[in-house]
Amino acid sequence: MQNRQIELALKQGRLQERIATQRAALAAQIKPVAEALKTADAAIATGRSGIDYIKHHPGQVGAAFAVLAILRPKRVWQWGRRAFVAWSLWRKLRGQLNRAGLMPQHKTA
């Protein structure tokens, strides 16, 4: 009986060493992915803070847009067209993702 316990203890020790080795290897392999995700998270946070600023300061954004429209009307039209195309594509893509069940549904209050 004691031999069986010793055998099990040795097996457990080998398994724990194997697990520790695998954890170390996984930690080393996941570093590039973690860095990429950190960059993506920062970009998303920046985008969200920009959207929040626009929502909370519509007058300032409108004034800046008006100044740009007066100073550079051609450029404003170009960017306006690009924004409209991007918005249209996003709406189409979002509809397809919703139909495919790949995009979470937002509850409206």
From TrEMBL:
Domain of life (superkingdom): Bacteria
InterPro entries: YqjK
Protein name, per record: YqjK-like family protein
Species of origin: Candidatus Proximibacter danicus
